[in-house]
Amino acid sequence: MKKENKLLSGADIFFECLKHEKVEYIFGYPGGSVLKLYEHLYDVDFLKHILVRHEQGAVHAAEGYAKASGKVGVVLVTSGPGATNTVTGIADAYMDSVPIVVFTGQVPSHLIGNDAFQEADIVGITRPITKHNFLVRDVKDLALTIRKAFFIASTGRPGPVVVDLPKDVIASNCEFEYPEDVDLRGYKPNYKGHSNQIKKAAEIISKAKKPLLYVGGGVIMSGGANELALFARENKLPVTMTLQGLGAFPGTDELSLGMLGMHGTYWANQAVNNCDVLVSLGARFDDRVTGKTDTFATGAYKIHVDIDPTCIDKNVVVDLPIVGDVKHILAEIASEMPRTPDTDDWLSQINEWRDECPLHYEDNDGRLRTEFVIEKISEKTKGNAVVITDVGQHQMWTAQYFKYNYPRSNITSGGLGTMGFSVPASIGASFAVKDRPIISISGDGGFQMNIQELITASYYKVPVKFFIINNNFLGMVRQWQELFHAEKYSFTDLSLSNPDFVKVGEAFNIESFSTDNPKDVDGLLEKAFSINDRPVLVEFKVVKEDMVFPMVPSGGSISDMIVKRLNPKRMI
Amino acid sequence: MKHTISILVENHFGSFDRVATMFSGKGFNIRSISIGETEIEDISRMTIVTQGDAQLIDQVVKQLNRLIDTIKVVDLSHAPRVERELALIKVNISKGSMEEIKNLCDIFRGNIVDITNRSMTIEVTGPPDKVDAAVNVLAPFGIKEMARSGIVALQRGEQTKIKKKQNIT
Ligand SMILES: Cc1ncc(C[n+]2csc(CCOP(=O)(O)OP(=O)(O)O)c2C)c(N)n1
Known about the structure:
The complex is a heterodimer of chains A (572) and B (169).
Chain A: E1 4-9, H1 10-20, E2 25-28, H2 35-41, E3 48-51, H3 55-69, E4 73-77, H4 81-84, H5 87-95, E5 100-106, H6 122-126, E6 132-135, H7 142-154, E7 160-166, H8 167-171, E8 173-176, H9 195-207, E9 211-215, H10 217-221, H11 225-234, E10 239-241, E11 256-259, H12 266-274, E12 277-281, H13 287-290, E13 301-306, E14 320-323, H14 326-336, H15 344-356, H16 370-381, E15 386-389, H17 393-401, E16 410-411, H18 422-432, E17 438-443, H19 444-447, H20 454-459, E18 464-470, H21 475-484, H22 501-507, E19 511-515, H23 521-530, E20 536-541
Parallel strand pairs in A: 2-3, 2-4, 4-5, 5-7, 6-7, 9-10, 9-12, 10-11, 12-13, 13-14, 15-16, 15-17, 17-18, 18-20, 19-20
Antiparallel strand pairs in A: 1-8
Helix pairs in contact in A: 1-2, 1-7, 3-5, 3-18, 9-14, 11-14, 12-15, 16-17
Chain B: E1 2-10, H1 15-26, E2 32-37, E3 43-51, H2 54-66, E4 70-75, E5 81-92, H3 98-107, E6 111-115, E7 119-126, H4 128-138, E8 143-148, E9 152-155
Antiparallel strand pairs in B: 1-3, 1-4, 2-3, 5-7, 5-8, 5-9, 6-7
The structure holds thiamine diphosphate.
C-alpha cells in the first residue's frame, strides 16, 4: 500500500478514488450539497462530466454507458430532489443488473434527521432497489467506501450502489491512502461452478434428443458470447434468447430461434414447450418468459446456470443448478461434452414450426409500419449497431425484427419497463461506443418522458439517431385495452395531444425529419446514417391500430398464444 | 412450518433495517425477531422466526445470504438447538386469585417482578412453547399488558467459527 501523507479534503479524495477506478465519465447535475465536488470538478481533467437536464436522465445515461461498455456507470447528484429524481433509474438498474454507482449529496451530518432543507433519506429510500448502499459518516471512511461501492457494483451479479455524501464529509480533511484491496466478509462472489455438476450437465446435454439453450443477459454481462457461440455451433444446439439476452448469439445464425416468451416467436415457444433438456444460461425464468409456470417446459430436464443463487428455484424449480460465472461454466461444459448430441431431427422439427407461423405483418396497403422500419434499420446496419429501445410495442417489434449480431448491441429496459429510458440511455451509450452507429428507438409516448435530454445530445454533439415510432397512441396499452379491456381506449390516444416532433427536434437544435410513407424510409435512413458528428431525429408516422403478435397473454400458457388479431374489423 | 433462522450481521448503520426491508419487500413474514450483541464486537446476531414451505425458506436463506451485510445465515430448524424466549406478563389480581397465580407462576418457574394492588407482572423464560403455555394459563385472569422478547437461539454443541460466506453474489 502506497502512502501519500499529505492531508486531502473529502472532495480531493473523491476524485482521487475515481481516478483509481478509471472513471471516464460522470453523468451529473449540481446542487447545494455537492457544490464542493463541483468546485473541484472544474479543474479535473482526467474525466469528463456530462451535464444532463434531469437526474433520471443521468442514471439512464450511466446505465446506457455501462451496458454498452461493460464498465461501471457513474452518477453525481445533489441531495433531496436531486437524489429522489434518481430513484426510477436506480430501480431500473437493479432490475436489469446494471453496474452503476450513484453519488448523492446529503445535508451536513449534524442536520441529518432534522428535516433540513433538501434533505431526503436516500439511503432508506433506495435500500430495496440497490445491491447495496452507504452513508459516509466520516471522511476517513470515504476512500474505502468508494472502493467497496465500485467493487460491489461490478462483481458477482452486477447492480446499482448508492453512496450518500454529507456536505461536511466532503469538506473535511484526512490523510489519503488508496485502499488497494477490499475484503468484505459478507460478500464473496462465487465464479467457479461445481465441477461434478458441470460434468453432469455435459453428460445430460450430450444425451439429449431435443435440447434447447435459453439465454439471458447474464451471458452478455459475463462476456460469454464467444463461449456460447462455440458451444452451440459445435453441438448444433438451438438458442433462444430473452429480451436482455438478444445479441448474446447472432440473430442471423440458423441456430437462433429469436426471442421467447410473451412476444417471442412461435417456434421459440414451441421449442421451449417440447424440448427434453432446457439449459438456462444467465436467465431468471421471469414471468414474461414463462407465462404460467405450471405449463412451462414441463417435460424438460432443467439445467440452470446463474451467478445469483437466489435466481435458482425462485420461479421454476430446476433439476440441476450450477452457481457461478456463466462464461467459465459454458467453456467447461463444452470441454466436458463426451459426444455431440444428434439434433438433426429436432432442428428440422423447429424449422417446421418456423414455416408454420412466421413473423408476419401487412405490407401491401402502402401504409407505414413499425416492423418495416425496423427491418430496414436492421438491413442497413447488418446488426452492427447499438440499438437502445424504449418500452412498448416498438420495443417488442425491435426485439422481433432487428437481427442483433453482437453482444452489447441491445440496450433496453426489460425488468422495470421504464418509459423514457431510451433517449438518455442512448446518450450514455454514445460515450462508450464510437465505432458503431447508436440508434435510439422510442414510441411517441416514451420519447416525451425524458425529452429534455435532447439538449444534452445536441450540446455534446453525440451521434445518436433518435428514431420515433409515432403511432399517436400509447400503443402497448392500447393493445391490452383492445384485447383484454373491452376496447375502452381510456387515455391512450395521443393523436390530438402529441407535439410536432420535427419542431421539437429543431427547437433542441437537432436536424429532424418525418415521414408516413414506406417509400421514404430508405432515403431517410441514408440521410440519418450520413450524419455522424451530431444527433439526428426521424419521426416515422406509423399506423396506429397494429398489435404485436404473437402474444402469450399474461399468466397464460404457450398454448394460449394469440397469433393474429381476433377481430380485425373492430378497430378504432 | 415455522423456521428459526440465525443471522450474523455487521453491526453498523442500517444493517438491521436492510434485513427487515428484504423480508417486507419479498413478502416473507416475520413471526418474531430479536437482535443483540455477540462475542465479537462488530457483529450482531439476529434471530428471526418465519414460516413457509421448503422452497420459500430456501429463498429466504438465499436472499439473506445475498445481502452484503450478512456474514452467516443458518436455518436452525433441523439442527439441535437451544431456543429461549422471555415474556413479561402483567395480569389482573384480586384477593381470590393471588394465591392461584403465584402457584401457576411457580409451576412455570416464573418470577414476580412487580406487584401493585391491582396487578402483578410475571417474568417467564424458557422455550417458546413453555412461554405460550404460561400465557394461556394466565389469560383467564385477564392479561393487562404483555411484552415478549422474540426467540433467541443457538445451535447445540461446538460451534464452528464464523466462516466466510460462499456462493453469494
Ligand atoms: C414510466 C412508465 N409509465 C407507464 C408505463 C406503462 N406503459 C407500458 S407501455 C406503454 C405505452 C408506451 O407507448 P409509446 O411510448 O407510444 O410506445 P408504443 O407502445 O406505442 O410503441 C405504457 C404507458 C411504463 N412502462 N413506464
